[in-house]
From TrEMBL:
<dbReference type="Pfam" id="PF02729">
    <property type="entry name" value="OTCace_N"/>
</dbReference>
<feature type="binding site">
    <location>
        <position position="75"/>
    </location>
    <ligand>
        <name>carbamoyl phosphate</name>
    </ligand>
</feature>
<feature type="binding site">
    <location>
        <position position="278"/>
    </location>
    <ligand>
        <name>N(2)-succinyl-L-ornithine</name>
    </ligand>
</feature>
<comment type="pathway">
    <text>Amino-acid biosynthesis; L-arginine biosynthesis.</text>
</comment>
<feature type="binding site" description="in other chain">
    <location>
        <begin position="47"/>
        <end position="50"/>
    </location>
    <ligand>
        <name>carbamoyl phosphate</name>
    </ligand>
</feature>
<dbReference type="InterPro" id="IPR006131">
    <property type="entry name" value="Asp_carbamoyltransf_Asp/Orn-bd"/>
</dbReference>
<dbReference type="Pfam" id="PF00185">
    <property type="entry name" value="OTCace"/>
</dbReference>
<feature type="binding site" description="in other chain">
    <location>
        <begin position="274"/>
        <end position="275"/>
    </location>
    <ligand>
        <name>carbamoyl phosphate</name>
    </ligand>
</feature>
<feature type="domain" description="Aspartate/ornithine carbamoyltransferase Asp/Orn-binding">
    <location>
        <begin position="199"/>
        <end position="311"/>
    </location>
</feature>
<feature type="binding site" description="in other chain">
    <location>
        <begin position="147"/>
        <end position="150"/>
    </location>
    <ligand>
        <name>carbamoyl phosphate</name>
    </ligand>
</feature>
<keyword id="KW-0028">Amino-acid biosynthesis</keyword>
<dbReference type="InterPro" id="IPR006130">
    <property type="entry name" value="Asp/Orn_carbamoylTrfase"/>
</dbReference>
<feature type="binding site">
    <location>
        <position position="238"/>
    </location>
    <ligand>
        <name>N(2)-succinyl-L-ornithine</name>
    </ligand>
</feature>
<keyword id="KW-0808">Transferase</keyword>
<dbReference type="InterPro" id="IPR006132">
    <property type="entry name" value="Asp/Orn_carbamoyltranf_P-bd"/>
</dbReference>
<feature type="binding site">
    <location>
        <position position="142"/>
    </location>
    <ligand>
        <name>N(2)-succinyl-L-ornithine</name>
    </ligand>
</feature>
<feature type="binding site" description="in other chain">
    <location>
        <position position="302"/>
    </location>
    <ligand>
        <name>carbamoyl phosphate</name>
    </ligand>
</feature>
Length: 316
């Protein structure tokens, strides 16, 4: 792999999942692969899981890791080519990315959307500028519209949890939140479930929360959450802000929160969430603390997803 920005960079999703599960069994089997290589991890936004799991994964492969919270510790970056830099920005991404490309063998970046300008967010301006100027492979730690390391983790988790010969029913449900959140996780989850191709896939959300069809593909869209959850094997819970009324919260209906009552019609579904999760707003305590929640092993699998991706980039 030359970069990891979306599922389109992956030659085979099932193969990448198998590589990740092999690393889960033998974390240090490729300890020599990353020797004398350095991963630079650049954060423009906060992170717990992505930051720590990717560092552990890189170390399992023998890599050195440098973490840079560029939003707090770096110069303010200018992202627009041709800009007259007489305002607040101090350093152009042309130099910043190119310089970091001199120091690191792989550059990993987290950059959230502004949620104000749909076109700017959906052209992935930030991460594309780093790709353009870094001169080394770029790995997304979550970009404006996609979170591929999370989605690979989610496929790995479903694959290892599902032991039956029939296809699982996977339902991604919108849930309420107090802040407008990006569409990156649901876009990406939809994209990866479709590329995986081993599940019957339903998406449920209030009207007005439709995601771009380029991600949802042939998934069934069902506006009635109870109907959607019927016979579900996996329930993937996530809030996102409106794509149509871009970046806005247009529904605050708390009845969309996932509770034990909501799960009654499912096939004792396993409940997933990328975390962090706001308890008793998005998912009730009784679910997160109950036997159907797999959010902790799901987060644990972030290491193996990152290790699989790094290994494939190191192998070129
Ligand atoms: N799920 C996820 O990406 O978690 P962090 O934002 O803590 O990295």
């Amino acid at each position: 792999m030359k970069q990891f920005i979306s599922v389109d960079d992956v030659p085979s999703v099932p193969r990448l999942v198998d590589i990740a599960l092999d690393y889960k069994k033998q974390p240090f089997s490729d300890k020599a692969l990353g020797a004398n290589k350095t991963l630079g991890m650049i954060f423009l936004n906060p992170s717990l899981r992505t930051r720590l799991s990717t560092q552990v994964a890189a170390k399992n492969l023998g890599m050195e890791v440098v973490v840079f919270n560029i939003d707090k510790e770096g110069w303010q970056l200018e992202m627009n080519d041709g800009a007259i830099m007489n305002g607040n920005t101090t350093e152009h991404v042309k130099e910043a990315a190119a310089v970091m490309g001199q120091y690191f063998d792989i550059l990993a970046i987290r950059t959230f959307p502004g949620l104000k300008d749909k076109e700017s967010d959906y052209t992935e301006k930030y991460i594309n500028q780093f790709i353009k100027y870094a001169g080394v492979p770029v790995l997304s730690l979550e970009s404006a519209t996609l979170h591929p390391l999370q989605s690979l983790t989610d496929i790995i988790t479903m694959k290892e949890q599902w032991q039956q010969p029939r296809r699982p029913k996977v339902v991604m449900t919108w849930a309420p939140h107090v802040k407008p959140l990006p569409q990156a996780v649901p876009n990406s989850f939809a994209q990866w479930v479709n590329a995986w191709g081993e599940a019957d896939f339903v998406i449920t959300h209030p009207e007005g929360y439709e995601l771009d069809e380029k991600f949802t593909g042939n998934a069934t869209i069902e506006y009635n959450q109870d109907k959607a959850l019927q016979d579900a094997d996996f329930v993937y819970v996530k809030n996102w802000s409106s794509y149509k009324d871009y970046g806005k919260i247009t529904c605050t209906d708390s009845s969309w929160m996932v509770t034990n009552d909501k799960l009654k019609g499912t096939n004792q579904a396993k409940v997933m969430h990328c975390l962090p999760v706001r308890r008793n707003v998005v998912i009730a305590d009784e679910v997160l603390d109950g036997p159907q929640s797999i959010v902790i092993p799901e987060a644990g699998n972030r290491v193996w997803a990152a290790q699989a991706v790094l290994s494939q980039i190191l192998k070129g």
